[in-house]
Design brief:
mainly alpha; transmembrane; single chain; membrane; about 60 residues; transmembrane helix; 2 helices
């Protein structure tokens, strides 16, 4: 029983970590796209993507 719970906990942790990595990867990809878009319009690049991301998260 305890082993089953332990195995499930590890599986969930793995899934969670993979999910977080995927989100971070996608976030970086979008930030690069946005920066490229702004660069084309001669606008300032996003210097603090994480601050902006957290701002969006807390605004929701």
């Amino acid at each position: 029983m305890a082993f089953c719970l332990f195995a499930w906990g590890n599986a969930f942790k793995l899934i969670y970590v993979c999910f977080l990595l995927m989100v971070l990867h996608l976030g970086n990809f979008f930030i690069k796209l946005i920066n490229r878009h702004f660069a084309a319009h001669a606008m300032p690049k996003i210097k603090k993507p994480h601050a902006i991301a957290w701002g969006l998260v807390f605004r929701l």
